[in-house]
Each structure stands twice: as C-alpha cells, then as structure tokens.
C-alpha cells in the first residue's frame, strides 16, 4: 500500500491529557471524550467540554464507522515518513465527531466525499498505533 | 472624495524590504534589521523616533521571558513605551499599533520580520512553518496546504466548475508577478489556466502553480500619528479601518468548509463600517493568495459576491492590474514572495506603494482604497485592513 513508511513517520508525543487516546489505540479501540454533564462528544482532546465547560468527561468508545467529510490525495510528501501518493481525510464518525486521518486500503484515485469508511490500525512498531481508516466492508451494517 | 475612519489619525509612513529571493546569504535577524532600516529611511525617521515595536525575534539568543519585541528594543538600543507581541506582522500588527498610537500609548511603531538562511536546511521538506507540530496532525502527513485542500475539495464538490476559475486566478496572479522585477518569480511564465491545471500535482485539487512560494526576505513598516506623518518624507497612507477574526488555533482541529468559508467576512464588515466604505469602493485587493481557491473564497467573504459566485466574478471583471478587481498587484505570495511570518507585511507594503502611486509599471491607475488581508480558511483565521490616502 502506498503511503506507509513506518520507520520515518513522525510519532505523536502524548500529553497527560491525550495519553488515554493513544493507549486505547494501542488496544485497537477508537475513543473520544464525552461530556458527563451535557453529553457532547469532543475531539481533539480538551480539559473541559467546549459546549458547557464541565471538566467531568469520560473517554468513550466509538464504533469507528463513519463517512468521508472531505478528502485529498497528497502527491508530494511534505516530510519523510510518507510515500506519495497518500490519502488525507476528514472522517465524520457516526457518534457526531470528526477526525483527521489517512485512508488506506484503496487505490490512488481520490475517494468520494460521503464514502463509508471504518477505522483500521497502523502499527508504528514501538508504543504507538495510529488510527487510520479504510473503505467500509460491504454489508458492514451501514 | 475624502477618507476618514476610526483609525485614520494613524498613518503608515515608512515601508522597507530586503531583496526577495529563493535564498538570501544572510540570517533572519540581519534581513529583518535591513528591512527595518529601509522602512525608517523611507519615512525619513531614525531609530530614536521609535517608541513602539512589534517584531518576532528570530535569534540568536533573546526571548528569555517576553517574546520578540523587547529583544528588538535591546538591539536597537532604545527604550520603548509599547510592544505588540501577539501577532507581530501584517494586518494584526498594523491594527494593534494603530490602536496603540490612536489611544496615545506611543507615537511611532516599527514592525519588522522575515526569514533568511533557513530554507536550505529544509531540503526534502516543506518549510518548517507549514508543518503543524501537533500529535493529531503531523503523523498523518497533513501540512498546511493539505488543510486548505480539505476546504477547497468541499467547495469543488458543490461548485465543480470553479476549478477552471481557480486556475485562471493562479495564472493571472503569477503573470502579474512575472512582470514585477522584484518578484522571486520574475520572468517566469506567462502561464495559462491550462498550464496551472497541467502542472505537477501537489495535493488535490492543487498543482504546484496553484500554491504559494516559500522563500527568503524581510519586510518592515513604520506607523505614526497622521499629524507627525505629514512632516515626513513620503505621503502618509492612513489606516481607514480593520477587523480580525480567529476561530481557534490553526492546524489542530481540521477545518470544516461550512464553518470556515466565511472566516474574514465579519472582519471585513467591521473594517468597512469603520470608514463608511464598501467592497465596491476598493481599488486594489491585496488578498492572501496562499492558494488559488483562497482568492475565490476571500472575494466571497469580503462581500463582493455570494457563495459559489466568485469564479464568475473574477472572470467577468478580471483580477489583473488592468482588470476591474486588481488583485495581488505585486504578484502575491504565489509569485512575488512568501517569507513565512514576514509575508503578511508584504501585503501592506504593496498597498502603501499603490496608494502613494509608486508602483511603477504595475500601478493601478487612481488607486485610493486598498484592502490587505492575511491568512485564510485552512488556517481558521483571517484579518482585513483598509488603507487610503490622507485627505
Ligand atoms: Zn458539556
């Protein structure tokens, strides 16, 4: 698959706030924060709910299923760690939150806005697993 | 017609820049100092006239506690009464300085910045300031142009015919720059819209010719009271109005088209309301042309047309120096120069030169009101300033 150059890819450097996201990813679970007070889900991580400012929230599993909100193909890698071309996508998850990621397991042709996708996992050998997305399987419930 | 506005008691009285080039054999600090000296000389002032500074400090050394501007006070050997470190370049620096001068906190502000001796180390990578160092962005290879591309792809999903207009925008601005002897891309081209479409792809929908440069150079401004400016060397260019809009930190949460497509619209409305003008009064648009889509989006945001209508607008009226909507009259960041954090200041300099009537072969005849802008939808902030003659 194009786009994967695991050795050189920049690693996330988790903070105390974001570490649970990456620890869950290591176990192939996709999570985001959900506010205990108002129920709003939010990502990227914040110390408080951006809607009601409650600091009580819970890391909550996502189905990992969603649709492509926007998509682009990068033809010239901006820095080492990527083999061109590769896909960068914004995925709207079914629980009403959004994630920037890569689309894998598809050809070099651009993917259509609105396509069904599901989470997949890119192991970066050491302690980091990156959540990425691939086209949803036929009959995966969508 | 006379031009008055809420900040019109403040004028830009000096502009200065270094050579703009792919590589300059010097440092960011040397280049920024050279630009500062040029701006002061242009104003007919000296460093001892400066009592306010807005400038990044690129090192060596410095910025132990406060960022930037205080380091410059040390280098210049002056004590100052005001520093503006929040966004010390381009439109926000001009508006912050104008507000400070207008309020009486200081009288004469120097703004300077740029980059030099840094691009060589970036071989094989895009410029450092285009690589968001965020754990939810960088591992996915999403550099700044990618974030803009994700917005443009949504726009083209709704308005697919706009791709041709984007290509025409890029070709026109690049041809304007090609004719500018000071431009990094001087003499390159001319380009057709088809050349833009056929250029090597970088990140869909953008080809290399849709996207701005990354090069070296520095740019500086001097602002003072209009009263003082009238005694200076060059004709004062007054600050008619301005506005700033920030949605969130750039390049962390990816931009959603429906949210960011109008970023800058409120800032533009505020700028126009401060001086009683409207978008049709603008004689030249120094839009922030980081890519061809942004030019279309910014015409929609400043209120010249509705959503999806900018392609038709630029085709009907033309954005060349001789067109109905002269745009990026120095060649913009697409062709003239993009010097990182110094680039937003270049937009102001070109506005001043147009209003002074000093733009030579690229002079927009009778240019009085100039709009200058900074950043765009992918960056999730946008700022606008209106400049005009002192009368
Ligand atoms: Zn809440």
Which helices and strands occur, and which strands form pairs?
The complex is a heterodimer of chains A (142) and B (391).
Chain A: H1 19-26, E1 31-35, E2 41-42, E3 57-61, E4 65-74, E5 86-93, E6 97-103, E7 116-123, E8 129-135
Antiparallel strand pairs in A: 1-2, 1-3, 4-5, 4-7, 5-6, 7-8
Chain B: E1 10-17, H1 28-43, E2 52-55, H2 69-76, E3 82-83, H3 90-103, E4 108-115, H4 144-158, H5 162-178, H6 193-198, E5 201-203, E6 206-207, E7 217-225, H7 226-229, E8 237-246, H8 257-260, H9 265-275, E9 284-286, H10 292-301, H11 310-317, H12 332-336, H13 343-356, E10 370-374, E11 381-389
Parallel strand pairs in B: 2-3, 2-4, 9-10
Antiparallel strand pairs in B: 1-7, 1-8, 4-7, 5-6, 8-11, 10-11
Helix pairs in contact in B: 5-10, 5-11
The structure holds zinc ion (ZN).
What attributes does this structure have?
heterodimer, A: 142 residues, mainly beta, OB fold (Dihydrolipoamide Acetyltransferase, E2P), 2 domains, five-stranded antiparallel beta sheet, 1 helix, globular, B: 391 residues, alpha/beta, Peroxisomal Thiolase, Chain A, domain 1, nine-stranded mixed beta sheet, two-stranded antiparallel ribbon, binds zinc ion
What is Rg of chain B?
19 Å
Number of helices of chain B: 13
Q: Would you count the extended β strands of chain A for me?
A: 8
Low-confidence stretches of chain B: none
Q: DSSP strand (E) fraction of chain A?
A: 35-45%
Strand arrangement, major sheet of chain B:
3-2-4-7-1-8-11-10-9
User: Helix content range of the residues of chain A, please?
Assistant: under 10%
Beta-strand share of residues of chain B? 15-25%
Let me know the largest β-sheet of chain A.
5 strands, antiparallel
- The CATH first-level class of the largest domain in chain A comes to Mainly Beta
Oligomeric description of these chains: heterodimer
Helix-and-strand structural type of chain B: alpha/beta
What is the name of the CATH class of the largest domain in chain B?
A: Alpha Beta
